[in-house]
Amino acid sequence: MTSQFTILPNAAPTSAEDRAKLLENPGFGRVFTDHMVVVRYVEGKGWHDAEVKARGPLQIDPASAVLHYAQEIFEGMKAYRLGDGLALFRPEANAARFNLSARRMAMPDVPEDLFIEAVEQLVRIDRDWVPGGGGSLYLRPFMFANEVFLGVKPSSEYLFMVIASSVGAYFKGGKDSVTVWVSTDYTRAAPGGTGSAKCGGNYAASLLAQKQAIEQGCDQVVFLDAAERKWIEELGGMNVFFVMDDGSMVTPPLQGTILPGITRDSIIRLARDEGITVREEPYSYEQWKADARSGKLVETFACGTAAVVTAIGTVKGEDGEFTIGAGGTGQTTARLRDKLTGIQRGTVADPYGWVRRVG
Fold first, then answer.
1. In the predicted model, what is the mean pLDDT of the chain?
2. Which of 136, 188, 214, 256 has its Cα between 20 and 30 A from that of 203?
3. Which residues are reported to carry the modification N6-(pyridoxal phosphate)lysine (predicted)?
4. Residues paired with 87 in a beta bridge
5. Residue 215 CA to chain centroid, in angstroms?
6. Burial, 280: exposed, middle or buried (Cβ in 10 Å; 0-12, 13-18, 19+)?
């Protein structure tokens, strides 16, 4: 389709006074902007009827395919307030990953120009919702099957939408480091499954383990591989890195069972350009414990769009717990986090062309 959007401004937008109050302490994922994007797809016709309109409830048939067969994918990305405008971070990478997820879930591609324009249109019309300081506008592009039928087959109709939420820190209290629970009862994904797709089913499968982690006084869950219950894969919603005493870093490899994080990819690029050796290789839970206790491992951090880069200070499991380094944010973690967030917010030079300004 030609990316032409019909703009239908919200007739009753949030007042400037009410918006300011909401932005004082937005938390994460609870404060939403005034508008949303909706684009329709029908097999044989393609993408059409692109609109920016007032955010509001959807009306869908109870036999809509997504409610029964879970054909649904999404992305997570952010818009940042710079000193002289607004910007997105690597939206082309989000568009590419969105389509990888779509193909795995037997859904149609969303053309990159349509994906990016949809996001930019929403940022432009809701630009006053982008917080300053350490806040950002979290953007949620998503697609779901809305054909009305009961039968196991790919849908022939879809909605592609984008909504936005003004956000602050992902972890409550702005913690210096988090505590994680290693799950030995549950796994997130298996070889040949949907682990590398950003689909809702992966997250639904992680929720019981995350609940268990919270009951154990932890912030997040760490999943091991499904085959051997030995190798570290990822957290409930983030990739993970291990920093060794020789300055090198290890991160689990992309083998189809973990999400190819855009923050993960950016960290690897930044680290290697600093001269840091980054090995993408399997790393076991037993090795993690041994290296932390011997001092060979000095830092561990998780990364993702929502939390950006967050140090892991303490690890708990059924067999006890251990602390990494001094239990806080290490030098390498802090340096890479500051460089990445500096690029995102325009305070550090961007030699990679990662920042896309939104006019």
1. 95
2. 136
3. 198
4. 80, 357
5. 24
6. middle
The amino acid at 298: V
Q: Which helix H or strand E contains 268, and what residues bound it?
A: helix 262-273
pLDDT at residue 169, rounded to an integer? 80
Residue 127 CA: distances (Å) to CA of 32, 48, 132, 315, 346: 12, 25, 11, 40, 17
Tell me the residue ranges of DSSP E strands in 132-252. Answer: 136-145, 157-167, 177-183, 220-224, 232-235, 239-244, 249-251
**And the tokens for 72?**
């649904």
Provide the CA 196 distance to its chain's centre, in angstroms: 12
**For 27-43, what is the mean pLDDT?**
97
Burial of 353 (0-12, 13-18, 19+ CB in 10 A): exposed
pLDDT of 50-67, one tens digit each? 999 999 999 999 999 999
Residues of the chain with CATH 3.30.470.10: 6-167
**CB 348, CB 336: distance < 8 Å:** no
* pLDDT tens sequence across 179-225: 999 999 999 999 999 999 999 999 999 999 999 999 999 999 999 99
Q: What is the pTM of this model?
A: 0.95
**Residue closest to 66 by CA, chosen among 161, 138, 193, 195:** 161
**CA of 67: how far to CAs of 70, 71, 218, 245, in Å?**
6, 8, 32, 49
Task: Name the CATH superfamily for 177-344.
Answer: D-amino Acid Aminotransferase, subunit A, domain 2 (3.20.10.10)
Cβ neighbours, 10 Å, residue 162: 24
Cα 126 to Cα 33, 36, 79, 357: the distances in Å are: 6, 9, 11, 15
Give 110's contacts (C-beta < 8 A, 6+ positions apart): 39, 47, 95, 98, 99, 102, 143, 160
Residue the block writes with tokens 């989000």: 94
- Specify the pairing of strand 72-74 against strand 35-42: unpaired
With a cut of 60, say whether residue 2 has pLDDT above it.
no
Residue ranges of the chain that CATH labels 3.20.10.10? 177-344
CATH of domain 6-167: 3.30.470.10
